[in-house]
Amino acid sequence: MSDRRVLDHVGMNVPDLEEAVAFFSAHFAAKEVFRLPRIDGGTQRLGAPDDAAFALVMLDIGGARVELIQWWSAGATGEAPPRADLPGGTHLGIEVDDVPGTLAALESVPGVGVVGRPVTFAEGPTPGMTNAFVTTPWGCLIELLSWGQPQQS
């Protein structure tokens, strides 16, 4: 058995696959790596009911891969993902060159919500890092961040 452990991708459920692909492509220069068309049944090995169906698109965002998955299931509630402070709550951190500029551009996108304005940390474990938070039209929390230059003391 190999000891190799490498994060390959992060998967996230979305309510509309094409909308999510278009969002990440338009605003984060995501490139489609591959796509699986709708697959019906046989989804128990993925933790879903056997009568569920899914389709997915693997994206490359700046060298990191994000798998977007749309599900169809009779038991799906259609509820938004858990809040960030609850178990299961997640966010996607995307490094950008200009946090305030990217935030300003996203503010004009219908359905995008600004959760937190840019903050630049002067000390602690991330000196020089700037971040801000937005939600996508379907409720995914995204951290926009730039590592900047560490402060000299």
Q: Overview of this structure, please?
A:
The protein is mainly β. It folds into two domains: 10-72, Signal recognition particle alu RNA binding heterodimer, srp9/1 (2-Layer Sandwich); 91-146, Roll (2,3-Dihydroxybiphenyl 1,2-Dioxygenase, domain 1). The protein has two helices and eight strands, in the order βαββββαβββ. The strands form two sheets. It has a four-stranded mixed beta sheet, covered by helices on one side. β7 (130-135) and β8 form a beta hairpin. The longest helix has 12 residues, at 17-28. The radius of gyration is 18 Å and the shape is globular. The chain starts with 9 loop residues before the first strand and ends in a 7-residue tail after the last strand. The mean pLDDT is 89.
Descriptors for this entry?
four-stranded mixed sheet; 8 strands; 2 domains; 2,3-Dihydroxybiphenyl 1,2-Dioxygenase, domain 1; globular; Signal recognition particle alu RNA binding heterodimer, srp9/1; single chain; 153 residues
Please compute the radius of gyration using only Cα atoms: 18 Å
Strand order within the widest beta sheet: 1-4-3-2
What is the typical, i.e. mean, pLDDT?
89
Which CATH architecture of the largest domain would you pick?
2-Layer Sandwich
Number of helices: 2
CATH topology of the largest domain: Signal recognition particle alu RNA binding heterodimer, srp9/1
Helix content: 10-25%
Shape: globular
Weakly predicted, low-confidence segments: none
The overall strand count is 8
What letter string, H or E per element, gives the SSE order?
A: EHEEEEHEEE
Measured between the Cα atoms of the first and last residue, the distance is 47 Å
Task: Please tell me the total number of domains.
Answer: 2
- The CATH class label of the largest domain is Alpha Beta
Structural class by secondary-structure content: mainly beta
What fraction strand? Answer: 35-45%
Q: For the report, how would you describe the main beta sheet?
A: 4 strands, mixed
